[in-house]
Structure formats: C-alpha cells, structure tokens
Design brief:
3 helices; globular; three-stranded mixed β-sheet; 31% strand
C-alpha cells in the first residue's frame, strides 16, 4: 500500500471500515496514513486496515472541510441537473481513485419537482461487484452530497445489478487512469 501522508487524528472521529462499511471511532492521537483524498472524503490506513473519513470530519485530520455546492440565483432545471452531476463526480469508492460517474456506476439521474422551489433527485446506480461491501456507503455518500445542493429536498438512490457493471461502462479517461482496457 502506498502511503501518501502520515497524520495524527486531532480529535476522536467517526470512520467507516473498508470494505465492510461498519462504523468505528478512531481516537485522538491515532497516527494514520492518508491513502486517498478525493471528492472531499478521505481514506486512511490505520492498524492494518482501511477506513473512510467523511469530508465534514476533515478537521480531525488537519484538513479543510470541503465547501458546500452553490447554485446561481434563479437556477433552472438544467443548471440544477448540471450541479447534481458535478456532485456525483465527487463520490468515490474508497478503494478506487475514480469517481462513480466515470466508473460507469450511475445508470440514471432524474430530477422531479416537489414544489415551485424544491426538487427530488432519483439516482439509479450499480456497484463494480454485487458483493461489494461499500454499496450502502456509496449510496449514503450520493444522498449526502447531492442533498447539499440548494433546492434539493430529497435524494433517492436505488442500487441495481441489471445490467451488471463491466469495465466497458467506464469512461475512456477512467479506463486510461486505471489501466483497464
């Protein structure tokens, strides 16, 4: 495993175990190796295991908390949808340094009016493997990040396995980056 940066936890911090998805508290003073910092979330290596730290807890690692997404005033549906896709591109599998859009995991993203000002977002997505333990974590990441967008009232995520994911669903840049041709 390539460790990029050794850091101490500055406070107790909730983390998610990879790949199981369980929650644990990593203690203040624990020295971890930051292995991935993408999309505002962090993957750390500690005590022989990988853990995911949410962006809201960046300060526990001495990092800056990522800014919330913004919309132009009076944004139309097209601008809101563009912002939703931008947020989806900030969602990363903690083990794979490619966002879920470029991985080809997002099959559908629909906006629906709740009222004049609020929108509901429906995301249909898959995982790289049906047994992936990070499915709930990825779905919650999508709900959280898309839900931060102003005017988004509700985010529903459906994880499906039909059609099954294959590397052909990846963007060309993702295949180049991962070496999966």
């Amino acid at each position: 495993m390539r460790a990029e940066e050794k850091l101490p936890f500055l406070r107790d911090c909730l983390a998610i175990t990879i790949p199981e998805g369980g929650q644990v508290i990593l203690p203040v003073g624990a020295e971890v190796y930051l292995t991935q910092a993408m999309g505002g979330s962090f993957t750390v290596y500690y005590a022989g295991r990988l853990f995911r730290v949410h962006g809201e807890d960046a300060d526990a690692l001495g990092k800056e908390v990522p800014p919330r997404p913004k919309l132009p005033e009076n944004a139309d549906d097209e601008a809101i949808e563009h912002c939703v896709w931008d947020q989806l591109k900030t969602c990363y599998d903690p083990e794979i340094p490619i966002n879920i859009v470029d991985l080809g995991l997002v099959y559908e993203c629909l906006l629906e009016a709740v009222n004049d000002d609020k929108k509901r977002v429906y995301v249909r997505m898959t995982l790289t493997a049906p047994g992936c333990g990070m499915g709930d974590v990825l779905a919650e990441d999508v709900r959280y990040k898309v839900g931060q967008i102003p005017r988004i009232d509700q985010v529903d995520v459906d994880i499906v396995f039909d059609p099954p994911w294959s590397r052909e669903m990846m963007s060309e840049s993702a295949r180049l980056e991962s070496g999966l041709w």
